[in-house]
Amino acid sequence: MLTKRIIPCLDVLDGRVVKGVKFKGLRDAGDPAELASWYYEQGADEIVFLDVGASPEERETMYDVVKRTAEQLFIPLTVGGGVRSIENVGEMLKSGADKVGINTAAVENPKLITRSSERSGRQCIVIAIDAKSVRNGEWEVYTYGGREPTGLDAVKWAERAESLGAGEILLTSMDADGTTKGYDLELTRKIVRTVNIPVIASGGAGNPQHMYEALTDGEADAALAASIFHYGEYTVEEVKQYLRDHEVPVRL
C-alpha cells in the first residue's frame, strides 16, 4: 500500500512565510529556509513553497529565496507563484525545485501545462487549484492568489488539467483555508474520484484528526497544512504518529 504524505506549506510574501484566513489577514510566521529545515527534521515528506505575491504583483518568483530554501532540504520541494512560461518552469527547477506549481498562468494559457510537461516531465508539473463554493456541490476556480473568479468549474478544470499533462493536483479550499475547522472533504473526494493523478488536500487543517479525515474520507493522496505547524500546535512527527495509530500508512 502506498504511504500517505504529510506536506507543510510555506506561503511566502516579501521573502517571509505568512499565513491568513481565507487568503486574507496575513501575519508573519518566520523565515522560509529555517522553517523548511525544521519541517525536514520533523519528518515531512515534502515541502510546498508558494510565492503568494508573485501573480498579483505580476512578477516572477523570488528565485534566490527558493534556492536558499532548497539548500536546506533532502526531500521534494514544490514551488509555485508567478510561473508564466516554460522558461519560468526551467528556472524554478534550476533553483532547486523538484516540482513546479502553476495556477493563474495555466488557467489563462492551458497549453503551458502541455508544453511544460513535455519539456520537464509530467511528474514535475503540479496544477494548483484554489476553489470556492458557489452553490451546493459546485466550486469555482480562482486565480491571482484567490482574488479573481474565473467562471471555471473546479472539478472539470482538474479533469482537463490532467488531460493536458498535469502530474499532480494541489487542491485548496478557499472557504476552509486558515479556519482550522477541517478540509472540504466533499470537494476533495469529488476531484480525487475524477482524476487519475495524485491529489494534495489543502485548506482547513486544525488538528491531526482533520488530516486523517482528508486522507480517508476525502481519499486524498497527501494532506497539506500550514497554521498548525507554523505556530507550534503540532509537529509533523506528532501528526504522523496519530495517523499511524489510526492505521493510515505513513513514512515515520
From TrEMBL:
The reply on keyword Transcription is no
**Organism, as annotated:** candidate division MSBL1 archaeon SCGC-AAA261C02
Q: Does the keyword Cell cycle apply?
A: no
Q: Which Pfam families does the annotation name?
A: His_biosynth
- Where is this protein primarily located? cytoplasm
- This chain belongs to which protein, by name? Imidazole glycerol phosphate synthase subunit HisF
GO cellular component terms, alphabetically, are: cytoplasm
Q: Which UniProt keywords apply?
A: Amino-acid biosynthesis, Cytoplasm, Histidine biosynthesis, Lyase
Which terms does the record give in the GO molecular function aspect? imidazoleglycerol-phosphate synthase activity; lyase activity
Q: Which family does it belong to?
A: Belongs to the HisA/HisF family.
Q: Which HAMAP family match?
A: HisF (MF_01013)
Q: Where in the cell is it found?
A: Cytoplasm
Gene3D superfamilies linked to this entry: Aldolase class I (3.20.20.70)
